[in-house]
Amino acid sequence: MTSTPSPRSAPGPRVAASPRDAPAPQLSTPLSVVAVRSHRHRAPLLRPFVTAARRTEAVEYVVAEVELADGTIGQGSAAETVAVTGESADTISVALQGPLRSAIVGVTGTITELSARVAGALDGATSAKAALEVALHDAWARSLGAPLVELLGGRPGDRLLNDMTISLEDPEVMAGHAREAVAGGEQILKIKLGHDIEEDRHRLAAVVEAAPGVRLRLDANQGWVPEQAIDIITGFLADGLPIDLVEQPVAAANIEGLARVSAAVEVPIMADESVWNVEDARRLVEADAVDMLNIKLAKTGGLRGALAIADVALEAGVECMVGAMMEPRISITAAAHLAIAHPAITMIDLDPPFWFASDVPAGGYVQEDGWLRLLGGPGLGLERLRADVDPSGGDQ
Ligand SMILES: [Mg+2]
Fold it and tell me: What positions carry a catalytic annotation?
């Protein structure tokens, strides 16, 4: 393993399809799970997170904890995102304490066997599964004294350029937020688009004027039909907007429509809501429907499903982004290990912790001038988040 930082700068360069490192021999290490626990937290945001679909002022989330027979403890987390995964903090807790717990407590198996038991324990519940499967991976890597990224075949010193989301507000408010983000070192802004194209045009113009030199990622969240998407995106490009990619322009199920938009416009199109699992990824690449895939652990149910998508993408020459829900630092750190580990992943959209009033626990990663890098340490490299910690930073 090299420790030399090798910035993989995106947006832009297509990743060469190179063989990954051989699977880590530690994949065959048996792990005995003796306990699964969970605890809930509520974390206020610094300012409201606003998209066309919702306005969020605080995040409800659940921490999943796995204990191995040797006393090692691993953690993962999942946030309530009813509008996306259909899961609330209540349903996440119930899934963790019920079928997910039953699937692995008292079981001895390899990390892949235990992950498969989590995946098969119940239908759906992808973010609850992600929390537990990440906790298993954290425990696995901690018990071996290695950073998770290394066990996934990655180089811990690699860095990826992060972006910052600008909430959907009036143009002058968005311009102010963009100015602030660029002053803080951000190089790429992610803009959630609304329902009114003319208003969106004003918003984008205001952002670009306030933050010259910044790159834009646009997310339509399925808002358009294909012909409309082609007109709108072509119009944005004619306006000279510095757009790196457009995410999910049309309905998730409209694969043919995605393909039509991708073929018609001069900017990469990325699938998000259309890709939850490896079968979705295969369907999209076989139809040549998109240029990129957005992988999120809360959709895939954890790291194994995410790696399977990235493998399909690598083989097809499709680049991936790793994104996330509005989730806490444990989830985002797991996503960062995944992103840095896999060569098909060239972009990250992992700004949620910067929205939290109090970003706990300590460790995991740092960001400098937009570049995210892991801090090292066993597992995810995070301190344990205890049940009695108040993530609002207030007194108990
Ligand atoms: Mg999206």
Answer: 192, 296
Q: Are residues 177 and 70 in the same domain?
A: no
Q: Confirm whether 240 is domain-assigned.
A: yes
196 and 258 fall within a common domain: yes
Half-sphere exposure of 207 (CA within 13 A, CB side): 33
pTM for this entry: 0.93
Find the 22 Cα to ligand 1 centroid distance in Å.
32
Interval between CA 230 and ligand 1 midpoint (Å)? 18
Query: Please, what is the Cα angle at 112 between 377 and 321, to 5 degrees?
Result: 65
Q: What is the pLDDT of residues 310-321, one digit of tens each?
A: 999 999 999 999
List, in sequence order, every residue forming a beta bridge with 94; answer none if it has no partner: none
Query: Per DSSP, what are the bridge partners of residue 78?
Result: 62
Which pLDDT tens digit goes with each residue over 248-265? Answer: 999 999 999 999 999 999
Residue 233 covered by a domain: yes
By residue range, what is the domain housing residue 121? 25-145
